[in-house]
Amino acid sequence: MANILPARQRLEAWPAVAGTIGAALGTFATVLLLRTVVGVGSAAAVLGVVLVLTLSRVRRGRPVRARHQRLLPLVVTPLIALLASEVGRLTERHRNAGEALFVLAISGAVWIRRFGPVWARAGTLATLPFIALIVTPVPPGSGAMSQLALVGVAFVAVGWVTLASQVETWLGVPAPSVPVDPVDHGAAGAQRRPQVAGRRRLAASSRMAAQLAVALAAAFVLGRHLFPAHRTWLVLTAYLVNSGNRGRADVLYRSVQRFAGAAAGTAAASLLAGVLPTHDRWSLVAVFGLLALGVWLRPVSYAYWAACITGVLALLYGYYGQSGAGLLRERLAAVGLGAALGLGAAWFVLPVRTSGVLRRRVADLLAALTDYLIVIQTGRRRGAGGPTPPAGAGRAGGPAGRAGAGGTNGAEGAEGAAAQLRRALAEAHGRVEAAFDRLAEIAPPLRAQRTLARLARAIPPGQRDRTRAPQRYDVVEALLACRTPVRELTGELARRGTPPPRSGRREIARVRDRVVASRRALAAASGVRTRR
User: Fold this and answer.
1) Residue 202: left if φ>0, alpha if ψ -120 to 50, beta else—which one?
2) Is pLDDT at 213 greater than 60 in this prediction?
3) DSSP reduced 3-state for 37
């Protein structure tokens, strides 16, 4: 069962937790050391910690190989931090204009994802300084010097996250699976996108941007009247439950998780409220302890992260002299209302349907499996040229066999073919792993949906297998169960360095035909065209 669970439902590796918390501690200490020089308060250090946590999450979730993409955080984050601080200053003088620009910036950062992976990564990074500013309990300051200092805080945070990334590499922390981009990445990517026959649909990024704009605008308006001192709680929750929308079921699932985690954190924080005095150093120790626990448990469930962050905020508010059970109850009410706003926007404003997301990710996985099976059959990736020499190419009668009794050229040819197979296999397997990861991302809400359906029917265990209707998670479960065999096959072929024998290749061809037939059936049901 553990093999078919999504990777994000396993505990985070301790070196990754240590790297994230180490970068947060380093940023916090560095900003505190520099605050007397740049003239900012300790709240700027809190802002730096928030940036580290968000940057680390983006880096772990979307690793990149291209050098220009690795430089994006260094360029984008400080510039957007300056822009976010200016928007914050404008909000203090002209609330309507500042809040409108905030909504435009966040939704625009989502909309530009439609232009490719570089823009998608830049858009994700662009949202982080804005979110960090509204998360920070106390404003970091005002004035020209303070605004420039925020750019410095962003540089410090990016530097510590980069250093932590290198340390994780030295410690051998496994990176998430990402496809190795082929030379013809642009053409291949364009060909693999399903084309809707006879009509054009609004891009998912455009729909998500519209949903976020509506949810954030409503959160600002309601928060101004209901939670005037802490309207950012409402805005933050509306953003979190709606960002990265993978369908309405995913938004509902995250809304429930965030509210449940906030409720548990509020209950625990109520016990801690008033225990530690204002500006007590042990409060900071407890803050970083809770952050480490939250980072460690977040892959298991977002509810754990929400609970830990609620405790962190309670400690921070107490550190700055804002404590009391009433404040925590107000935060819980704001979280519930913000989740409802985000869910309403996802449900009624240009909705992203869960069934559509599921079909797309299943189709992507089947396409990756098709190319993977081609590599196993031929030893080369699709479109790479002629066939791989057979396993016996070095024997007498072949060109390599006639090269001489020593078989030097034959050995070199066999080694070259083995190296080519391993490269193509690693590339194809990387795409398959990435497709498995993307399918696993939408598994938890579908699994919860199936569980609730079974409970609602209340079918006795002995009759359930014969009477229950098929659920969407059944498809996901069956496909994720293929992950372990695919890994084992890849490992075996990489060790051998040769394609399977002829009988094995015939069996693989039959499997590939079934995969292609499944892709065509899925495409026919979706009204899209596909290729063999």
Assistant:
1) beta
2) yes
3) helix
